[in-house]
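Journal club prep — side note

Before the paper discussion, L.F. wants everyone to see what a predicted structure for a comparable chain looks like in C-alpha cell form. Sequence:
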Amino acid sequence: MSSPRRRLWIVLTILVVLALVSAGFIRVPVVAWMPGPIVDVIDQIEVGADVEVYPPEGDHLMLTVAGTDRLSILEAMGYGISRRADLISLTSVRRPGETDEEYRERNLQSMDMSVHVSIVVALDRLGYEIEDTEIVISGILNGVPADDGLDPGDVIVSVEDVELERADDLVRYIAERQPGDTLKLDIIRDEETIDAKVELTAREDDPDQAMLGIRVQDVVESPLDINIKTDKVGGQSAGLMNALGVIDLLSPGNLIRGHTIAGTGTIDLDGHVGPIGGIRQKVLAASEVGAEFVFVPRGNLEEAESAGVDITLVPVDDIDDALDYLTALPPVQAAGPGLE
C-alpha cells in the first residue's frame, strides 16, 4: 500500500475511534423507558386493626415503567434497537431546570395524591359516606409571587369570591386570566380564614399563559384507617389498580375470582380513568408475567396495541367500566383430583 493511501487509512481509523469514544461520553436529552417492577396491590394495602378484610384469591398487578436518562449516544442507540424500550424526549418528563431531587419529590407527591384519591374512590364505591373535598396546596415553586403569600398546607376556599369545589376549578379559572393579573384567594390556615392577594406569573413553557406556580390536590378525610405503601414508586398511574385492590380487599367474596389481572391508569375523585405514559412497556410486562388481561385507559388503547403481544386489552373510561368487567368474569375453576 502506498504511503498516501496508508496515511488516509490511518486518519480514517483515528476518526472512527474518536467518534466511537465520543459517542460513549456525549449525553443526549432522552429517556429510555423499560418495563419496571410489578407488585400485587393487595400486598401493599395497610389497614387498621378495626378494619375487616377479605383477602382475595388471584392477583391485582400494578404495572410500572423504569426510566433511564443521561444516556450516551451509544447507550441511546442500544436502547433504540431494543423491542422492550422506547426513547422519549427528556423535556416530556422533566420540567425546565428541574433537579433530580425536585423531579423525584414531584413524582412521590403525585403518588401520595394518587393513593389518597384511589382510597376515597374505593370507599365511595363501597358505600361509605365521604366528606366534602378540600383543595390543599401541596407545593409552591421557588421565586413565584405566590411564594410570598401562600404556604404548603393552606386550604383554598374560593377565588375572587367564587367558591371552589375541586382543584380543577382553580386550574380552569386561572386559564382564563393573564400573567400579571392579581387574584384574591380565600384560604384557611391554622383554622383561620385569610384573604390573600396573589399575582399570576407566566408559565416557563408558554409565556402567554398564566399560572400561580403552586401544586394543589383534592383532599378528603378517609372514614377508615387505611393506607397503601408505595415503595418509593412515583407518579399517578397506579390509581385505578389501587382503587380496585381496596374494593376487593374490603368486600366479602372475591372480585377477581382467582384471576391474575393487571392494569394501569390515573384516577380522579369522580372515578374517571386517565391516560398514562409507558403503556407499551407495561403491556409487555403484563404479558411476561402471565396476566390474563390488562385494564388500559381508553386514550392509551392504540399505543397499548402496538406492544404486539397476545394479551387481552380492556379499555376503560372509569372505574365502573373495570368493575363491570370483573363482575362478569367466571371464577377460575380449581383443578380436581388427578387433573392438571
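L.F.'s comment for the group: The chain has ten helices and 22 strands. Keep this in mind when we get to the figures.
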